[in-house]
């Protein structure tokens, strides 16, 4: 019972940290302003490494619910849903593969690579068919307006397809790599604890 309470408390703490990290974002040159690099998936990744992929999803869910409830940004949860799908895909695929192959430094990078590729693919498809049209709708804009806005950052963006190819896809690849690099020292410290519990 105490173990379950400690786990719940720790995941709640990770969710809160993830929520706070959602406000720490950095814009990238040549990318539209709505795409900013952040590291809010790191707490979910830690939770998933310690307690399994579903724990990581729970952290992703809670941090996005907190963000939706406690901020007044527009978008009617489209951004939070997008963040949840991206983060959950990255965390679940990465940690699932890591666990399948057993914990090691090499398998950490294999997992992170798979998670990054999965996130980039899923978010490319989801943004094309769902998130960009939905965001345009709730903001009272058209998809063409978003394309025009994005073109100010990168003149190669002339259609929804090129927005995906030149912005969404590379952005998620960069995001996954950046988070893997930041997470690796944390993983190295946690690995003896994980292995002792196996």
Structural notes for this entry:
The protein starts with a helix and ends with a helix. The chain is globular and about 55 Å long. 77% of the residues lie in helices and 3% in strands. With 198 residues, the protein is mostly helical. It has a two-stranded antiparallel sheet. It has helices at residues 2-21, 42-51, 53-70, 78-101, 105-138, 143-151, 160-197; strands at 25-27, 36-38. The model has no long low-confidence stretch (mean pLDDT 92). The chain has seven helices and two strands, in the order αββαααααα. α2 runs parallel beside α4, α4 runs antiparallel to α5 and α5 (105-138) runs antiparallel to α7 (160-197). The longest helix is centred in the C-terminal third of the chain and has 38 residues, at 160-197. The chain has a single domain, classed as Arp2/3 complex 21 kDa subunit ARPC3, CATH 1.10.1760.
Question: What is the count of β-strands?
Answer: 2
Distance between the termini: 20 Å
| Helix-strand pattern | HEEHHHHHH
Give the % helix. over 70%
| Number of alpha- plus pi-helical segments | 7
Low-confidence stretches: none
CATH class: Mainly Alpha
- Class of secondary structure makeup: mainly alpha
Which architecture does the CATH hierarchy give at level 2? Orthogonal Bundle
Q: What topology, given as strand order, has the largest sheet?
A: 1-2
- The fold-level CATH name is Arp2/3 complex 21 kDa subunit ARPC3
**Residue share in β-strands:** under 5%
- What does the average pLDDT come to? 92
> What's the shape?
globular
Largest sheet composition: 2 strands, antiparallel
Count of discrete structural domains:
1
What's the gyration radius in Å? Answer: 17 Å
């Amino acid at each position: 019972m105490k173990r379950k309470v400690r786990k719940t408390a720790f995941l709640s703490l990770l969710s809160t940290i993830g929520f706070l990290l959602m406000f720490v974002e950095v814009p990238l040159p040549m990318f539209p302003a709505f795409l900013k690099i952040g590291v809010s998936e790191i707490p979910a990744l830690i939770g998933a490494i310690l307690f399994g992929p579903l724990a990581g999803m729970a952290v992703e869910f809670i941090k996005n619910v907190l963000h939706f409830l406690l901020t007044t940004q527009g978008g009617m949860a489209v951004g939070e849903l997008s963040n949840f799908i991206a983060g959950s895909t990255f965390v679940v695929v990465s940690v699932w593969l890591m666990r399948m192959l057993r914990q090691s430094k090499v398998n950490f990078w294999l997992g992170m690579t798979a998670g990054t590729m999965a996130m980039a693919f899923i978010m490319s498809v989801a943004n094309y068919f769902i998130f960009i049209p939905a965001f345009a709708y709730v903001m009272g804009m058209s998809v063409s307006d978003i394309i025009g806005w994005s073109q100010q950052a990168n003149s190669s963006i002339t259609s929804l397809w090129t927005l995906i190819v030149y912005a969404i896809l590379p952005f998620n690849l960069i995001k996954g790599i950046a988070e893997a690099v930041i997470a690796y020292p944390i993983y190295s410290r946690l690995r003896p604890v994980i292995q002792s519990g196996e």
